[in-house]
Hints:
The complex is a heterodimer. Chain A is mainly alpha-helical. Helix content of chain A is 83%, strand content 0%. Chain A has one domain. The longest helix of chain A is centred in the middle third of the chain and has 30 residues. By secondary structure, chain B is an alpha/beta fold. Chain B has a domain of 51 residues. Chain B is 31% helix and 27% strand. A five-stranded parallel β-sheet of chain B has the order 6-7-8-3-9, sandwiched between helices. In chain B, helix 3 packs across helix 4. The chains are: A mainly alpha, B alpha/beta.
Amino acid sequence: MRAFGAVLGREVxxxxxxxxxxxxxxxxxxxxxxxxxxxxxxxxxxxxxxAPGALLAAALLAALLPLDxxxxxxxxxxxxxQLLLSGLPLPALAMAKALGHWATTGLPLLAATPMAAxxxxxxxxxxxxxxxxxxxxxxxxxxxxxxxxxxxxGARRGGVLLPLLVLPLAIPxxxxxxxxxxxxxxxxxxxxxxxLLAALLxxxxxxxxxAAGAALRAE
Amino acid sequence: MLEGQDLACxxxxxxxxxxxxxRLDPGGAMLLVGPNGAGKSSLLxxxxxxxxxxxxxxxxxxxDALADRVAHxxxxxxxxxxxxxKPSLTARxxxxxxxxxxxxxxxxxxxxLGLAELADLPARVLSSGQKRxxxxxxxxxxxxxxxxxxxxxxxxDAxxxxKLGALLAAHRAAGGLVIAATHLPLPLPGAGEMRx
Lengths: 219, 196
């Protein structure tokens, strides 16, 4: 437990020393959302119609950005060997890395969600639900993304391979996340969709770290 | 007591080494020597449990050492080619992470390698020799019975090699083992030599 906290604390400290990485993901998220009005035209009802899906897709793509450095940077300077020998079981190490990624990328994206929602003219009554839906959605992506990063570690063109591996796994998250926001925008209960998102998170929570741990072992 | 029996390591289709056996008693030291590419680093990674042996067994106190990798990781310190330092963290912060994992005093470990006055500098401004010393300072944190060192003295000045010598002597006096791959003379009196 102490080792888990040490690895997680190190992730957060490193992110604080390199705020540009987090900022890049947040700006990417907001800018992609800002591009949609230019593409589909500024008609408010059209924008509001595509807002839920666009919000989900943009947030997940933004969260992917720092993933290829998650283990790559550690492998380059030899830190990965030390982490593998840290005495943490490898799934726990992967879990700490995934949690670190979520805390340093997912949480800032949640904070930027109102801004992105405003760009897409999402009705204000759905903003709270948008944050509630994006929280488990980004967490699932952090988990699957960590497994993908562990698998593509050392592969040539790993940065290209990673989205190809991870994004198909994120399809259910996009479906239920967008459905939740759409329901809230239409004044319907979003709870069933949020619960389905929570169920996806409950599946990913044990599975992804186990897969990532196995991939790290095979390195 | 660490014992290797008929260890072999393959890289692709080629055997890096095979049929390698050794035995190291408490306080013992072994130098791995040989030309580049002879498999010194591969053997150290194998002994650390980072890569599984293609053949053979590694025994610790007569038991299979690699059966429980987490326990094996807990009894060793591995110093690889890379210094495993984060450039944006200060020397103290770099070491504090390992102190959180293993215990030990950061300030004492920094002082043991003569880094006390550099403690608040980010690792990116340190020279390569200072970085190597900071990596070596991890050894001074908390005791572990097995030290696996890959070229520990690369880039070190004579005074720092002496400080490393003091660390190695204290470690061996307490019954610790040292296995080091090197091209340079190391302060390890009475160390056996294995030619790869």
